[in-house]
Amino acid sequence: MDYKNIEGFPQGFMWGASTSAFQIEGAWDKDGKGESTADRRSSSHVHQADTKIAMDHYHRYKEDIALMRELGMKSYRFSIAWTRIYPNGNDAKPNEAGLKFYSDLIDELLRNNIEPIVTIYHFDYPESLVSQYDGWVSRRSIDDFVRYAKTLFEHYGSRVKYWLPINEQMVMAIQPDLLGIREENPELLDKKRHQANHHMFLAIAKTIKLLREMVPSAKIGPAVSYITALPESMKAEDTLAAEDVNNIVSFSLMDIHYHGEYPKYYLKYLAERDWMPVMLDEDAEILKGARPDFLAVNWYCTMGAKYAPNRVDQKRVDDGNVQPAKTGMIEPGIYEIIKNPFTDYNPWGWNVDPVGLRLALQRLKQRYNLPVMITENGYGDYDTLVDGKIHDDKRVHYLRAHIEQMKLAINDGVEIFSYNPWSFIDVLSSSNGIEKRYGLVYIERTDSDVMELKRIKKDSYHYYQKVIASNGEIL
Ligand code: BG6
């Protein structure tokens, strides 16, 4: 629907930006930090930059926060590396140096009037827990996660109001190497990844209840990879296939958190494939009554879907990339992901479809009616330094178009209270090293050469600065 009168962003809207620990910090084994699955995964990508130095944010966080302040950021969404706090994931005592790093970081943000939004765990699971007991596959993982979260609430609870327990749990269940699950047997791998997913649901529910006891004024919500699939045609079976993608990949997770139980369609999906995790009697009680305060959504693009008949010669196909539903991916009997001919794509096959964001936000309102913060939204591209500047016009276009649609969604009645595009500075992409850049701030380095790691403001930084200064009036 078009509007004649458009209301602006609410006063106090939190304009921010996002990063995660392993993608920017570096100092991967400094001051007692242990190895994470992200460290190991990145060093196996031989031609890509790894987590050892990354963007050296660990040593330059004050310089980075000064840039945030100059940009006008009101919030900053970042993650804590579990292996800085507990190097082995479950050590007898937390690592004081790790606690101090994040304490100083939070203080520096607050001094600069920037609200910290903290992801407790973003793709960087302690390797030691994988060796000790197969990580999330074991039920022991639940207590270790909750104990780690408790340590964070004790140390930072009085200073951090917004918490996100686990980033993109469903993506990790679809790409289980992110969880450190290394299993050759495909049937066993499927069992393990769904068992791990179930344990993460329980860990999040317990963490939400714990935060309510320890810091009643704090707010917590899951950080979800939110996919919006659109049907290829007007055939009802294609619409159904697109809805199945949305349900299986995104809404199942939000449904479980919101309703405190697995929805029937998801139970059927698991049971029909023989992927049903082991669930104990007590699990129903654990999941109940842990409704989040808000939804934190990572939304990048739409994708096309059509019905894929269940033929014997068809197998589940994916390309090993982190984005969970890529062109060509097939779930026999459910859907095939197809290219959308109506949209542009970035060089990695992610499309630009801003109206899809408005649709996605409307659906959240209809289904859950919870406040929403956008914790990721951004454009990955090769950026080239020309005369000391980065003219990232496509990223500026992407941001403008998505902010416009977010504004319309607010007019539609969706309660959105914060926007944190991905990413503040260039990060290590989860699968494509540093060549796939997202930042508002360029980091001068390549995959093979660490260089000086100079921070250079891109055109998108200057654009977003004006957006923030005008509270979204100048787009
Ligand atoms: C999200 C992750 O899935 O997408 C980020 O939370 C990631 O960590 C981002 O960087 C973009 O994906 P990629 O693979 O391009 O880095």
Summarize the SSE layout with pairings.
Blueprint: E1 14-18, H1 21-24, H2 37-44, H3 57-71, E2 75-79, H4 82-85, H5 96-111, E3 115-121, H6 127-133, H7 140-156, E4 162-166, H8 169-174, H9 186-214, E5 219-220, E6 223-225, E7 228-231, H10 236-259, H11 264-272, H12 282-287, E8 295-298, E9 302-306, E10 330-331, E11 335-338, E12 344-345, E13 351-352, H13 354-367, E14 372-376, H14 393-412, E15 416-419, E16 441-443, E17 455-457, H15 459-469
Parallel strand pairs: 1-2, 1-15, 2-3, 3-4, 4-5, 6-8, 7-9, 8-14, 14-15
Antiparallel strand pairs: 9-11, 10-11, 12-13, 16-17
The structure holds 6-O-phosphono-beta-D-glucopyranose.
Structural write-up:
- The protein has 15 helices and 17 strands.
- The chain starts with 13 loop residues before the first strand and ends in a 6-residue tail after the last helix.
- It is globular, with a radius of gyration of 21 Å.
- The longest helix is centred in the middle third of the chain and has 29 residues, at 186-214.
- The strands form four sheets. Strands 5-4-3-2-1-15-14-8-6 form a nine-stranded parallel beta sheet.
- Helix 14 links the parallel strand 14 and strand 15.
- With 475 residues, it is of the alpha/beta class.
- 49% of the residues are buried.
- The structure holds 6-O-phosphono-beta-D-glucopyranose.
- Residues 20, 123, 167-168, 171, 225, 298, 322, 376, 380, 422, 427, 429-432, 436 line the site of 6-O-phosphono-beta-D-glucopyranose (BG6).
